[in-house]
């Protein structure tokens, strides 16, 4: 079975490649922008014509720089809207199933209980708006026969992410201030990759929108304290601050905890606790 992964050099793409290689039952087409420009319908059509055995498409490609998205609206829309649509059209035409990765930013961040899949969407910035439109384009092009997988606060040993940044800053600075009024559930990319593989290997395909992040909820401040504690960093004084103290071009959700009940019940997926997964990631980083 051939699986196409787009955005393969990103955090989730790297973890998917590692786990699928261990699985050994699949042929991988791991692509990034230099291999496949998903924003070009013609390029996508040619790629599928040259790889007619694709049976799964996992779209990890995205414009995720939320602040830059406020200025680079056109590029953000091409990657987050046009790209998913092109992939969904080609996948449907060739009989391939599609899993598309989306985000908690489709919500307004004003809830006080975990967001279920059918909660009202209300993106607060260009990034969230384009990701929501990308979801709609994929659903329309596949007539709903797809999986939209929303996640949040993604990190891994690969690329740039909050965990690696806090580790670097904790080792090079005496003091840090981190926002305490934004709460969410961190997502270890390796766990998300495992959930995706469970969906692919499931005895029965269930299309729809699903949520996945690690269990539990925490602020960025408390997350940073846990990162330093698990890594043995003791020389950095981490202090809480409010979001208003550090204004950014794009508004961050104050609350972005996702309800995982649906994916657990539908696909029988066990979701690890955020701190257990963080410890696993830090151990991998320390063993590099």
Would you give an account of this structure?
- By secondary structure, the chain is α/β, with parallel strands linked by helices.
- It has one domain: NAD(P)-binding Rossmann-like Domain (Rossmann fold).
- The protein has ten helices and twelve strands.
- The strands form four sheets. Strands 2-1-3-4-5-10 form a six-stranded parallel sheet, with helices on both faces. A two-stranded parallel sheet has the order 6-9.
- The longest helix has 21 residues.
Structural class estimated from helices and strands:
alpha/beta
Task: Give the overall shape, derived from the CA principal axes.
Answer: globular
Q: What's the architecture, going by CATH?
A: 3-Layer(aba) Sandwich
Count of beta strands: 12
Number of helices: 10
SSE map:
Blueprint: E1 2-6, H1 11-23, E2 27-30, H2 41-50, E3 54-59, H3 66-69, H4 73-93, E4 97-103, H5 126-141, E5 147-151, E6 154-155, H6 162-172, E7 175-179, E8 183-184, E9 187-188, H7 189-201, E10 208-211, E11 218-219, H8 220-231, E12 237-241, H9 261-267, H10 274-286
Parallel strand pairs: 1-2, 1-3, 3-4, 4-5, 5-10, 6-9, 7-12
Antiparallel strand pairs: 8-11
Helix pairs in contact: 1-7, 2-4, 4-5, 6-8, 8-10
